[in-house]
TrEMBL record:
Residues 1-27 form the signal peptide. The keyword Signal applies. This is Integrating conjugative element protein. It comes from Xanthomonas boreopolis. It comes from the Bacteria. InterPro entries: Integr_conj_element_PFL4695. Keywords: Signal.
Amino acid sequence: MKPRIFRPAVPWLIGLLPLVSVPAAFAQTPPLIVVEDRGGTSALPYYQALDLQPRTGSRPSPRIDMPRLPEGPSDEAAMLPVRSAHLAPGDVAPRAIQAPGLTPMFLVGDDQRSHAWLRQRAPALRELGAVGLVVQVDTPQALAALRALAPGLTMAPVSGDELAQRLGLRHYPVLVTATGIEQ
């Protein structure tokens, strides 16, 4: 007996193959999970500056509109006033942390307690190579006065709220190193 070949069934089976394989291909890619999104501006300009060549065989990326940069001078005075809602002058209990590689930094504000702390600790801060974050300051003159108290130290006006939350801080002035937090 001669085997029968179902020639009309072959095109039908070939036609079903894409219908079966397309859902299987999509089922293999898991959905993206956003772990944290704090908003802000796009990092695209940094990647564009690298002038990376597109991958061969990949589809082009969708166009992302970039926010316009502010026109005019961009200086420290434009960043002021700086206020940190989660931080206030006060006592800080010393405690150990483990942050290998962390550059020593200190948090100060434009208040009498910070002024006295800076005058007292300036030599030790310089020796450590600590960087200062001024977390409460209103005017360029007040920022300049803080810098005059500790010449040779870098101090920048920055909101300290996020850092305070991450390190469990409520008060300043404070020194944060790779091994501890102290006043």
